[in-house]
Amino acid sequence: MIFRRALIRLTVTYTLVQLALFGAFAIGIYAFVTGTFDFDVEELSGEAFIASAEQGFALLRNGLLVGYAALVVLLPVASYLMARGALAPVRRSYELQQRFVDGASHEFRSPLSVIQGELELALSRARTPAQYRTAITRALESAESLAQLTNDLLLLSRDSSAEMEATFEAVSLTELARIAVGAQGPAAAKVRVNSTRAVLVDGSRGLLARAITNLVDNAVKFTDESGHVEVTVTSTGKVAQIVVFDDGIGMTEAEMAHAFDRFWRAQDARSTPGFGLGLPLVEQIMTAHHGKASIDSSAGVGTTVTLTLPEYQP
Questions:
Q1: Does the global pTM surpass 0.70?
Q2: How many degrees, rounded to 5, is the angle at CA 284 between CA 278 and CA 286?
Q3: From CA 249, how far away is CA 229, in angstroms rounded?
Q4: Does residue 124 surpass a pLDDT of 60?
Protein backbone atom coordinates (compact mmCIF):
# COMPACT_ATOMS: atom_id res chain seq x y z
CA MET A 1 0.00 0.00 0.00
CA ILE A 2 2.81 2.43 0.88
CA PHE A 3 4.60 1.82 -2.41
CA ARG A 4 1.36 1.93 -4.39
CA ARG A 5 0.60 5.41 -3.06
CA ALA A 6 4.19 6.54 -3.66
CA LEU A 7 4.07 5.09 -7.18
CA ILE A 8 0.84 6.95 -7.97
CA ARG A 9 2.23 10.22 -6.59
CA LEU A 10 5.44 9.93 -8.57
CA THR A 11 3.56 8.99 -11.73
CA VAL A 12 1.27 12.03 -11.44
CA THR A 13 4.19 14.32 -10.64
CA TYR A 14 6.32 13.07 -13.54
CA THR A 15 3.33 13.37 -15.90
CA LEU A 16 2.46 16.95 -14.88
CA VAL A 17 6.06 18.10 -15.06
CA GLN A 18 6.57 16.60 -18.52
CA LEU A 19 3.24 17.92 -19.82
CA ALA A 20 4.08 21.38 -18.51
CA LEU A 21 7.48 21.30 -20.20
CA PHE A 22 6.10 20.05 -23.51
CA GLY A 23 3.22 22.55 -23.31
CA ALA A 24 5.63 25.42 -22.71
CA PHE A 25 7.80 24.16 -25.57
CA ALA A 26 4.82 23.97 -27.96
CA ILE A 27 3.59 27.47 -27.00
CA GLY A 28 7.11 28.79 -27.44
CA ILE A 29 7.39 27.34 -30.93
CA TYR A 30 4.01 28.75 -31.95
CA ALA A 31 4.77 32.19 -30.48
CA PHE A 32 8.16 32.29 -32.15
CA VAL A 33 6.82 31.39 -35.61
CA THR A 34 3.86 33.78 -35.49
CA GLY A 35 5.83 36.60 -33.91
CA THR A 36 8.92 36.42 -36.07
CA PHE A 37 7.15 36.43 -39.41
CA ASP A 38 4.75 39.38 -39.77
CA PHE A 39 2.42 38.62 -42.65
CA ASP A 40 -0.02 41.39 -41.82
CA VAL A 41 1.78 43.87 -44.08
CA GLU A 42 -0.09 43.57 -47.31
CA GLU A 43 2.59 45.31 -49.37
CA LEU A 44 5.12 42.53 -48.64
CA SER A 45 3.08 39.73 -50.02
CA GLY A 46 -0.51 39.91 -51.08
CA GLU A 47 -3.74 38.46 -49.82
CA ALA A 48 -3.14 35.00 -51.32
CA PHE A 49 0.19 34.67 -49.59
CA ILE A 50 -1.26 35.91 -46.31
CA ALA A 51 -4.05 33.36 -46.52
CA SER A 52 -1.50 30.63 -47.24
CA ALA A 53 0.59 31.70 -44.22
CA GLU A 54 -2.45 31.76 -41.98
CA GLN A 55 -3.36 28.29 -43.17
CA GLY A 56 0.17 27.18 -42.35
CA PHE A 57 -0.17 28.63 -38.84
CA ALA A 58 -3.45 26.80 -38.41
CA LEU A 59 -1.82 23.51 -39.46
CA LEU A 60 1.06 24.19 -37.04
CA ARG A 61 -1.39 24.92 -34.24
CA ASN A 62 -3.44 21.82 -34.97
CA GLY A 63 -0.32 19.67 -35.21
CA LEU A 64 0.92 20.93 -31.85
CA LEU A 65 -2.51 20.28 -30.29
CA VAL A 66 -2.66 16.74 -31.69
CA GLY A 67 0.89 16.05 -30.54
CA TYR A 68 0.08 17.38 -27.09
CA ALA A 69 -3.05 15.21 -26.93
CA ALA A 70 -0.94 12.17 -27.83
CA LEU A 71 1.49 13.08 -25.06
CA VAL A 72 -1.38 13.25 -22.56
CA VAL A 73 -1.98 9.56 -23.34
CA LEU A 74 1.63 8.38 -23.61
CA LEU A 75 3.31 10.33 -20.84
CA PRO A 76 1.42 8.67 -17.94
CA VAL A 77 2.69 5.30 -19.15
CA ALA A 78 6.24 6.59 -19.46
CA SER A 79 5.95 8.31 -16.07
CA TYR A 80 4.67 5.10 -14.47
CA LEU A 81 7.65 3.16 -15.82
CA MET A 82 10.03 5.89 -14.62
CA ALA A 83 8.46 5.92 -11.15
CA ARG A 84 8.50 2.14 -10.95
CA GLY A 85 12.17 2.05 -11.88
CA ALA A 86 13.00 4.75 -9.34
CA LEU A 87 11.21 2.85 -6.57
CA ALA A 88 12.50 -0.63 -7.48
CA PRO A 89 15.56 -0.64 -5.16
CA VAL A 90 13.56 0.82 -2.29
CA ARG A 91 10.75 -1.67 -2.84
CA ARG A 92 13.19 -4.58 -2.90
CA SER A 93 14.78 -3.45 0.35
CA TYR A 94 11.38 -3.01 1.96
CA GLU A 95 10.21 -6.45 0.85
CA LEU A 96 13.32 -8.10 2.29
CA GLN A 97 12.80 -6.31 5.59
CA GLN A 98 9.10 -7.16 5.59
CA ARG A 99 9.91 -10.79 4.85
CA PHE A 100 12.00 -11.02 8.00
CA VAL A 101 9.47 -9.16 10.14
CA ASP A 102 6.55 -11.28 8.91
CA GLY A 103 8.45 -14.49 9.44
CA ALA A 104 9.66 -13.49 12.87
CA SER A 105 6.26 -12.39 14.11
CA HIS A 106 4.70 -15.58 12.77
CA GLU A 107 7.15 -18.09 14.19
CA PHE A 108 8.60 -16.52 17.35
CA ARG A 109 5.41 -17.09 19.34
CA SER A 110 5.83 -20.83 19.94
CA PRO A 111 9.40 -20.92 21.35
CA LEU A 112 8.79 -17.74 23.35
CA SER A 113 5.63 -19.26 24.83
CA VAL A 114 7.58 -22.37 25.85
CA ILE A 115 10.32 -20.31 27.48
CA GLN A 116 7.81 -18.15 29.32
CA GLY A 117 5.74 -21.15 30.40
CA GLU A 118 8.69 -23.15 31.72
CA LEU A 119 10.09 -20.20 33.67
CA GLU A 120 6.70 -19.28 35.12
CA LEU A 121 6.14 -22.89 36.11
CA ALA A 122 9.55 -23.08 37.78
CA LEU A 123 8.83 -19.93 39.81
CA SER A 124 5.25 -20.82 40.74
CA ARG A 125 6.38 -22.82 43.79
CA ALA A 126 9.43 -24.36 45.39
CA ARG A 127 10.83 -27.26 43.38
CA THR A 128 13.60 -29.82 43.57
CA PRO A 129 16.92 -29.20 41.82
CA ALA A 130 16.02 -31.86 39.25
CA GLN A 131 12.75 -30.09 38.44
CA TYR A 132 14.51 -26.75 38.10
CA ARG A 133 17.09 -28.39 35.83
CA THR A 134 14.32 -29.85 33.66
CA ALA A 135 12.55 -26.49 33.33
CA ILE A 136 15.78 -24.65 32.55
CA THR A 137 16.78 -27.32 30.00
CA ARG A 138 13.47 -27.01 28.17
CA ALA A 139 13.70 -23.23 28.18
CA LEU A 140 17.28 -23.44 26.87
CA GLU A 141 16.25 -25.80 24.08
CA SER A 142 13.52 -23.36 23.04
CA ALA A 143 16.01 -20.48 23.19
CA GLU A 144 18.40 -22.41 20.95
CA SER A 145 15.54 -23.16 18.59
CA LEU A 146 14.67 -19.47 18.57
CA ALA A 147 18.27 -18.53 17.78
CA GLN A 148 18.34 -21.04 14.92
CA LEU A 149 15.06 -19.70 13.59
CA THR A 150 16.39 -16.13 13.73
CA ASN A 151 19.50 -17.12 11.76
CA ASP A 152 17.38 -18.89 9.15
CA LEU A 153 15.06 -15.91 8.76
CA LEU A 154 18.01 -13.54 8.40
CA LEU A 155 19.46 -15.74 5.67
CA LEU A 156 16.10 -15.88 3.90
CA SER A 157 15.82 -12.08 4.00
CA ARG A 158 19.27 -11.62 2.49
CA ASP A 159 19.52 -10.40 -1.07
CA SER A 160 22.18 -11.90 -3.31
CA SER A 161 24.58 -9.15 -4.32
CA ALA A 162 28.05 -8.40 -5.56
CA GLU A 163 29.15 -7.95 -1.95
CA MET A 164 28.25 -11.56 -1.16
CA GLU A 165 29.91 -12.86 -4.30
CA ALA A 166 33.09 -11.01 -3.37
CA THR A 167 33.45 -13.41 -0.42
CA PHE A 168 33.11 -16.55 -2.55
CA GLU A 169 35.95 -19.07 -2.62
CA ALA A 170 36.64 -22.58 -3.87
CA VAL A 171 34.57 -24.93 -1.69
CA SER A 172 34.55 -28.74 -1.75
CA LEU A 173 31.01 -30.11 -1.87
CA THR A 174 32.38 -33.55 -1.02
CA GLU A 175 33.93 -32.24 2.18
CA LEU A 176 30.78 -30.37 3.16
CA ALA A 177 28.67 -33.49 2.53
CA ARG A 178 30.89 -35.61 4.82
CA ILE A 179 30.79 -32.92 7.52
CA ALA A 180 26.97 -32.73 7.28
CA VAL A 181 26.70 -36.51 7.63
CA GLY A 182 29.14 -36.59 10.55
CA ALA A 183 27.03 -34.02 12.39
CA GLN A 184 24.12 -36.48 12.50
CA GLY A 185 25.63 -38.41 15.40
CA PRO A 186 24.39 -42.01 15.73
CA ALA A 187 21.98 -41.48 12.81
CA ALA A 188 24.98 -41.08 10.49
CA ALA A 189 25.20 -44.86 10.36
CA LYS A 190 22.29 -44.98 7.90
CA VAL A 191 23.79 -42.31 5.61
CA ARG A 192 26.23 -43.11 2.80
CA VAL A 193 28.28 -40.56 0.86
CA ASN A 194 29.06 -41.40 -2.78
CA SER A 195 31.86 -39.37 -4.34
CA THR A 196 34.89 -40.37 -6.37
CA ARG A 197 36.75 -37.08 -5.99
CA ALA A 198 36.59 -33.63 -4.49
CA VAL A 199 34.05 -31.51 -6.39
CA LEU A 200 34.72 -27.78 -6.12
CA VAL A 201 32.31 -24.89 -6.56
CA ASP A 202 32.72 -21.15 -6.16
CA GLY A 203 30.70 -19.99 -3.18
CA SER A 204 30.26 -19.25 0.49
CA ARG A 205 31.42 -22.16 2.62
CA GLY A 206 29.04 -21.28 5.46
CA LEU A 207 25.94 -20.93 3.28
CA LEU A 208 26.62 -24.07 1.25
CA ALA A 209 27.27 -26.01 4.44
CA ARG A 210 23.90 -24.83 5.76
CA ALA A 211 22.13 -25.91 2.56
CA ILE A 212 23.65 -29.40 2.53
CA THR A 213 23.15 -29.88 6.26
CA ASN A 214 19.48 -28.93 5.92
CA LEU A 215 18.98 -31.56 3.22
CA VAL A 216 20.75 -34.29 5.19
CA ASP A 217 18.86 -33.32 8.37
CA ASN A 218 15.53 -33.58 6.53
CA ALA A 219 16.45 -36.91 4.96
CA VAL A 220 17.46 -38.42 8.30
CA LYS A 221 14.50 -36.90 10.11
CA PHE A 222 11.90 -38.41 7.78
CA THR A 223 13.52 -41.83 7.38
CA ASP A 224 12.93 -44.52 9.98
CA GLU A 225 15.67 -46.62 11.57
CA SER A 226 15.49 -49.34 8.91
CA GLY A 227 15.75 -46.86 6.03
CA HIS A 228 18.81 -45.37 4.42
CA VAL A 229 20.01 -42.06 3.01
CA GLU A 230 22.45 -41.54 0.15
CA VAL A 231 24.37 -38.35 -0.59
CA THR A 232 25.94 -38.36 -4.06
CA VAL A 233 28.34 -35.68 -5.31
CA THR A 234 29.13 -35.56 -9.03
CA SER A 235 30.44 -33.15 -11.65
CA THR A 236 30.65 -32.82 -15.43
CA GLY A 237 33.50 -30.33 -15.60
CA LYS A 238 31.11 -27.39 -15.86
CA VAL A 239 28.24 -28.31 -13.55
CA ALA A 240 28.40 -29.81 -10.06
CA GLN A 241 25.56 -31.68 -8.43
CA ILE A 242 24.80 -32.97 -4.97
CA VAL A 243 21.88 -35.38 -4.71
CA VAL A 244 20.34 -36.36 -1.36
CA PHE A 245 18.08 -39.41 -1.55
CA ASP A 246 16.07 -41.04 1.21
CA ASP A 247 13.53 -43.86 1.27
CA GLY A 248 11.42 -42.17 3.93
CA ILE A 249 7.79 -41.09 4.04
CA GLY A 250 7.98 -39.01 0.84
CA MET A 251 5.41 -36.49 -0.37
CA THR A 252 2.42 -36.40 -2.68
CA GLU A 253 2.46 -34.27 -5.85
CA ALA A 254 0.31 -31.65 -4.15
CA GLU A 255 2.69 -31.49 -1.18
CA MET A 256 5.73 -31.41 -3.45
CA ALA A 257 4.34 -28.30 -5.17
CA HIS A 258 4.62 -26.42 -1.85
CA ALA A 259 7.96 -27.88 -0.73
CA PHE A 260 9.84 -24.60 -1.25
CA ASP A 261 7.17 -22.36 0.31
CA ARG A 262 8.21 -20.66 3.53
CA PHE A 263 6.62 -22.01 6.73
CA TRP A 264 4.74 -24.71 4.81
CA ARG A 265 4.93 -28.25 6.19
CA ALA A 266 3.38 -31.46 4.94
CA GLN A 267 0.66 -33.00 7.09
CA ASP A 268 2.83 -35.99 8.06
CA ALA A 269 5.74 -33.71 8.98
CA ARG A 270 3.92 -31.43 11.42
CA SER A 271 4.61 -33.71 14.37
CA THR A 272 8.35 -33.44 13.66
CA PRO A 273 10.30 -30.48 15.09
CA GLY A 274 10.90 -27.72 12.56
CA PHE A 275 9.61 -24.45 11.15
CA GLY A 276 9.21 -25.16 7.44
CA LEU A 277 12.22 -23.01 6.53
CA GLY A 278 14.74 -25.70 5.56
CA LEU A 279 13.99 -26.10 1.85
CA PRO A 280 13.13 -22.40 1.24
CA LEU A 281 16.51 -21.55 2.74
CA VAL A 282 18.22 -24.11 0.50
CA GLU A 283 16.55 -22.57 -2.55
CA GLN A 284 17.58 -19.07 -1.44
CA ILE A 285 21.20 -20.18 -1.06
CA MET A 286 21.19 -21.84 -4.47
CA THR A 287 19.83 -18.68 -6.10
CA ALA A 288 22.61 -16.64 -4.47
CA HIS A 289 25.13 -19.08 -6.00
CA HIS A 290 23.57 -19.01 -9.50
CA GLY A 291 22.37 -22.57 -9.01
CA LYS A 292 19.04 -24.27 -8.51
CA ALA A 293 17.34 -26.78 -6.22
CA SER A 294 14.84 -29.36 -7.42
CA ILE A 295 12.84 -32.05 -5.66
CA ASP A 296 11.28 -35.33 -6.71
CA SER A 297 9.21 -37.31 -4.24
CA SER A 298 6.57 -40.00 -3.98
CA ALA A 299 4.47 -40.73 -0.90
CA GLY A 300 5.68 -43.87 0.84
CA VAL A 301 8.64 -44.25 -1.55
CA GLY A 302 11.06 -41.49 -0.67
CA THR A 303 12.45 -38.11 -1.67
CA THR A 304 15.32 -36.93 -3.85
CA VAL A 305 16.58 -33.36 -3.66
CA THR A 306 19.13 -32.20 -6.24
CA LEU A 307 21.35 -29.13 -5.97
CA THR A 308 22.95 -27.95 -9.21
CA LEU A 309 25.77 -25.39 -9.20
CA PRO A 310 28.38 -24.08 -11.64
CA GLU A 311 31.62 -25.94 -11.00
CA TYR A 312 34.65 -23.97 -9.85
CA GLN A 313 36.82 -22.76 -12.73
CA PRO A 314 40.37 -21.88 -11.59
A1: no
A2: 105
A3: 12
A4: yes
